[in-house]
Amino acid sequence: MTVSAGPVEPLAKPVFILDVGGVLVRHDNGLLYDRLAARCADPFAARQKLVDAVHDEIIGTGHLSVFELHARLVFDYDFSATYEAFLGIWSSHFSEEPDMEPVVRALARRHRVVLFSNTNAAHWAHVTAYYPTLAHSHHAYLSYELGLIKPDPASFRRVLELEDCRPDEVVFVDDRADNVAAAQALGMDAITFTAAAPFRAALADRGITLDL
User: Do both 79 and 150 map to the same domain?
Assistant: First the structure.
């Protein structure tokens, strides 16, 4: 008598690791720098230096708090806004990423979806309060809590460790080419995000369809 082996086990569902800024929420860093510079004593001179003053390696790792950043801007550039006003400017460059909320909601129904963002406490408080797309994720890994930022390979390895998964079990999604390349170098499948429609097409290419 022949015994049937039964149905073939499906492949393990991938874990999706999604960036936030540039994928789930739009951000215009140039606009942020312009608005910060406008409150400095010499806006033109300050604008040239703000990119270095507000860099991920300083703020995103948590080595300098947002409160300390405000104090530094006041001291270095004669920044005129109070801390409360500064917080409003600090998060004024975000906007909704069109059509991503239903995509993430549908994706999270069938797959584990976690967020991995270079961010800081003030930005995180703002985007979680105003952009409901983020609430569909199952967990979030934040650079200022990890003390590591993308594209540092150590940051990816730490997230994999915390998720208890292998690189080949992950689909990583980010809008920045250097972050995508770093994920691929570690063995992850990776998608460069540009908009919701191409992202859905990239999922379909991987055999993943969404019931929106």
Answer: no
Domain membership flag for residue 133: yes
> 3 in a domain, yes or no?
no
Sole residue written with tokens 């998720």: 163
Residue 51 belongs to a domain? yes
- Within-domain flag for 209: no
Q: Tens-digit pLDDT profile for the chain (212 aa)? A: 333 333 333 334 799 999 999 999 999 999 999 999 999 999 999 999 998 888 888 899 999 999 999 999 999 999 999 999 999 999 999 999 999 999 999 999 999 999 999 999 999 999 999 999 999 999 999 999 999 999 999 999 999 999 999 999 999 999 999 999 999 999 999 999 999 999 999 999 999 989 88
Sign of the torsion angle spanned by Cα atoms 187, 176, 123, 137:
negative
Phi/psi of residue 116, nearest 5 degrees: -140, 105
